[in-house]
Amino acid sequence: MTSGEANRVYFDTISDTYDSKPFFHVVNQKVTDDLRTRLHWLGIPFLEKGTTSEDHSVRHLDYACGTGLMSRVRHPFHLVSPHSALAHHMQILAPYVTETRAIDVSPNMVTTYNARAHAAGFSIDVMNAVVGDLLDAENPSPTGAEWDGFDVATAGFAFHHFNDVVLAARRLKERLRPGGVVVISDFLEGGDLKADEEGNPVEGSEGTWAVHHHHGDGHRHGYGHEHGHEHEHGHGHVHGHEEGQHRHHNVMDAGNHGEFPHNKMKASIRVEGASFTVDGVKRFFTEAGLIDVDVVTMQERVYMEFAGQKLWRTVLFARGRRPAEAKSEL
């Protein structure tokens, strides 16, 4: 079994419990709320309240979509129970995009994503996910006109598990219309605070405490997860890319499924040479050919538990724009 095949089996196994941890929902909501305050910063003419798709079209590509965090950010009342208090709060906001196309390597995760979209009343023309891998070196998928020309392409908490972050940013850029934007979320290198047993932040403990060991070279990357041990991700999925395989892991449930997921996650991370400082992210976005690059951080840290650790982590958002095509002089 190849690493990519094992990865798909793992995610198909845990898709039902993908986002079940209590703090997972709190973190997701904080990130969602923060991003919604930054719509102007993203630089895309999102749909305004009171307008319709006949007035204005905004297309969104959600890559490594999982169960749909980034889609939920763009569609405020998608994928939540219409009877919940949260839904009541969210439904006063107009949708920001007219169409979302999503991609994930896990068939079961795609099924979960689509089931939630359907339950929320959205047709496949408005929101739909497919199985695919844009980072496959030889055969990136999916292809076709419907998978090009997006206004915005997002990847939530995935880039620090891509083997080649420049390639990943470039592949997302290539799916945009000229002037479209790539937006990612991730964790800031050096932005962790340790927490005590009650979950309170320990002042003066700033650093990078969720660390992983890179396979084969013993190198510690100061932005990721504790590699070689059970580890969890603040938004439920992590990704890697090895020998053309886009690799994607839900680590929220690490340790709940025996040795199978533990061993698979140990082999999941293949990041080399990337820095997830503000300047580091700006650097690889720029190298990918994006312009108007900016990186911001959430002012409030988010609380997480994983691998026996309790941490407060700093979330970053990065934005970069595909350049407008040069006009022909002919």
Put the structure in a nutshell.
The chain is α/β, with parallel strands linked by helices and 330 residues long.
Biggest beta sheet attributes: 7 strands, mixed
**In CATH terms, what is the fold-level topology?**
Rossmann fold
Classified in CATH, the superfamily is: Vaccinia Virus protein VP39
Q: Count of DSSP E strands? A: 14
Briefly note the structural class of the backbone.
alpha/beta
User: How many separate helices?
Assistant: 9
CATH class: Alpha Beta
SSE string: HHHEHHEHEEHEEEEEEHHEEEE
How many whole angstroms does the radius of gyration measure?
19 Å
Record keyword descriptors for this entry.
Methyltransf_12, SAM-dependent_MTases_sf, 3-stranded antiparallel beta sheet, globular, 7-stranded mixed beta sheet, alpha/beta, Methyltransferase type 12 domain-containing protein, Rossmann fold, 9 helices, 330 residues
